[in-house]
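sorry for the late reply, my laptop died twice this morning and i had to redo everyting from scratch. anyway the thing you sent over, i finally got around to it. pasting the sequence first so we're on the same page, its 196 residues, then the predicted structure underneath. double check i copied it right bc i was rushing
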Amino acid sequence: MLNNMIELDEIEDLRTYERHREQIKSEMIEYRRLRRVALGEIMSLTFENKKSVKYQIQEMARAERMISDEQIKAEISAYENLIPKPGQLVGTLFIELTSKSELMYWLPVLTGVESCLWIVTSSGSFQSYPEAGHASQLTRADVTPSVHYLKFDLGEQTFEHFVNSPVLLKVAHEHYEASAYLGEELKRSLAMDWQP
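ok and here's the structure:
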């Protein structure tokens, strides 16, 4: 069984973390770059795993100056659903808009985009859906947020097809379409997330 849980003692105290934060930050920038897929001009998806989520929690604990076990446990609880289970991929979708006019145009027309991404493998196509905590925050029907937390359930039997054949990530929204094949290095990294 995959150990998907982040334990309390895996989050370093502030002083310990600060001693090597710059090195970790540099490593994570490169790691996240590897796990990022550009989808056309205005979107990208970064695949999450225990390592990326742990880093996010560590950074939040630092930014919020969290020192109690209860604070850290609450942060772990808030983010641990972004860690994929075996046969699952989890990603953060960024709608990358830089001007007010772009925001005003794109965010209203991209409503529903959280269910319009697909992972296409030789064994099938797998539709995105919003992570449960994120889904509960999608309260406006007239505009979409610029960040979405998405899941894809591929099933554990897809592993071999995923590793040994082309894998396409695509957006198929009525107002925006884009696609990209996952590189071999990224596929190996994602496959490692499924290993015990």
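The first strand starts at residue 36 and ends at 39.
thats about all i looked at so far, will dig more tmrw
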